Amino acid sequence: MGFLAPWFLAGLAAIGLPIWLHLLKQHKTTPLPFSSLMFFERRTQSSIKHRRLRYLLLFALRTALIALLAFAFARPFINSTIVASARGGKLLVLAVDNSFSMRQGNRLEQAKSDAASALSKLRSEDRGLVLAFGSQAHLMGEPSADVSALRAQIRAIQPSDDHSSYAELAHTLRSLTMSSKMPVEGHLFSDMQQTSMPPSFADAALGDNVTLVLHPTSQGALRNFAVEGVTAPRRIYETKKVRIQATILSTGGAAGTRRAALVLNGHEIGSKSVDVPADGRATVEFTGLDAPYGMNRGEVRIDSADAFPADDHFYFSIERSDPLPVLFVHGRDTRDLLYYRTAVESSRDAAFKLESASPAQAAELPLSRYAFVVLSDVGDISDALDQTLRGYVRAGGSLFVAVGPAAAARRKVPVSDAAIRDGRYSSRDGVAFQTAATLDSTHPATRQAGNWADVKFFRYFSVDPETSRVLARLSDQTPVLLEQQTGEGRVLVLASTLDNVSNDFPLHSGFAPFVDETAHYLARLDDRPANATVGAYLDLRSGREPSGAAIEVFDPHGARALTLAESAQAQNIQLSQQGFYEVRRPNRHNELIAVNPDRRESDFTVIPQETLALWQNTGQGSHAPQAAAGESERKPVDFWWYFMILVLALAVLESLVSNWHLGVEKEAA
What we know:
By secondary structure, this protein is of the alpha/beta class. Helices cover 23% and strands 27% of the residues. Strand 18, helix 9 (383-394) and strand 19 (398-402) form a beta-alpha-beta unit. The two termini are 50 Å apart.
C-alpha cells in the first residue's frame, strides 16, 4: 500500500486534540466563598485520579475520526491485479488479406489457418472480430467471445480479385477503437506486399490504443511475369486500322522470352514473341483485327511458366460497327464542307461517315438516324426543318452550329434561340485579329489547348451566352464556342465559320483533332478504355434513358448483379470480379465491360522489416508489452473514498455517544 499525497499524514498530529479534551480538561476546581480557613488542615491531594481517562468510547471515536480523515486526504492506494482486470478486455481483430495476390499457391489457406490458431489468444474478457480486406474491409460478423463462431467466419473467407490496401486496414482499426471503446489488438495475415502500402506513410498510421501483430504468409519476393495492360479501341469501324498493344511486366528478377497470343472470342488469331528484361517491361503490338460485328471478348495471353499463372492474361472488350452517319447541312459555299469532310475522314478511328445536304433536302430526311447534325452558316431554315431540328435535339440528339453572315441574318441561333447581336471584322492586312484567350480545359472540345494555338479570327459574331456554357473566349472576351443543353440533347455553337475566310482555323494542324473531339462528344462516344480495374465503379445512366428504366447487369458468371429494384434505380455499380460484365439498356445501347485485377498485385516484393517495424510503432498500444493470456497486470487503485465513508459514519456515531454522555451528566447534577 502507498499514498498518493503522503504530506497529508501530518494531520495525524491532530490526534492530540481529543487527548487534551479528555485528560487535561476534565479536572476543574470551583472556588467557594468561606468565612475562615483557620480550622482547616493543609494537606497534598493526589492528581492521579484526575489524570485517568473517562468516556473511553467517545475518546476512541474522536481519535479514529481524526486519523481516518488524515488517511483519506493522503489518498491511499494498492497494486491490485483483480481491479486491473476489471477494467475490461480488448478487441482481438483477425484481419485476413484475401486480395488477388493471395491466390498464389496456398497463401490464403495458410493465412486462414494462422488466423484460426491466433484465437488461442482470446481471453474470457476479450472479444474477437474477423474481417477480410482488399481495397475495402468486410466484417465477417459481430464482435464475439464464441471461438467456434469466429472459426466459422474465418472458414467463410473467399479469395477475391481486389487490390489490398493497408491504408484501408489502418482506417478500419482506428474506427473499431472508437466504436468499441476497447483497445484493439490487430493480427494481420497477409503476404506483406510493398505495393499495398499507401504513397503517404501517414495514411497507414494505426493510432491510439491499437496494437498490430504481423503474420506473414511469404518470406520473400517471387519471380513473376504478367500481362500488365492492353491498349485497344473500344469500337472499331475499319478493321485494317486497328492496333492492339500489350505490355508484359517482369518482377522479382524474372527475365526471358515470352510468347504473347491475341485471343478473340476464345479463338487465338495471332501470336508474337517478346523479350522481357529483368524487372522491366516489354511491348508487343498486333495490327489489324477482323472482328465480327457486335460485342467481342478479347484477351492477350502469355506462357509465363511461373508460380502465379492467374495474371498471365488480360481481358479487353471491342465492338465492331459501321461508321456512324453525320449530316452536314450547308449553304451555297462548299469550302466549309471540304475542310470538315477532310478532318472527319482523317479521324483516329474512322468512326463517322459524312453526308451533305442543303436545308431543303435536310427537311425531308429522318434526323434520328444521324449521330449528330452540323449546320454550317445556314440562314434559310424552313419552319419544317426548324421543328424537325428541335424535336431531334429534345429527344437527345446533338447539333453543331457554325455562325456566319447567313446565319447571323436570322438574329438568333437555331434551336437554342440564343441572340446574335452583331458581327465583328478585322482586316487580314492589319494586326487587329483575335485569338483564343481562355479555354475550358474540362470540355472535350477545348481540353487540348494546343489545337487553338495561333488561330486567328478575322470575322466573328457576338452570341448572347444567356444560360449557355462558354467554352472559349477571344482576346476581347467575346464568346467563340458555347454549349447549351436543350431537353435531352446538346447544341454546340461556334461563333465563326468552318472555312478559311472568317478564320484560319482549318489551315492549322489542330483543326482535325478539334473536329474529331467534338464529333465523338456530340455522338456520345465516350472515351472510356476497353477495360476497367477491379473495384472501379461503372456509371449506368447517361441521362438519355427514361426515368425508372430498368438496366440489367450480368456479372462474369452470368448472374444478375442487380436486383429488380436496383436495376430501376441504381446510378452505378462496383465491378468486383475479373471477367466480362454485360450491361443491357432499354434503348439497346448495350455494353460489354472487361474487368481485370490491379496489376500492382503481380509484384510480390515484400515490405522491408524496418518499414514494418515503423508501421507497428505508429500504434500507441505497440509501445507497451502485452500481457499473455492468464497473466495478471498490476495497477494502482485509489480507495480514499472508502475512508471518507468511514469518517462520515464515525462522525454520526461520535455525535450520538457525546449527546448520551451529556445527558447522563445533567441527570447526575
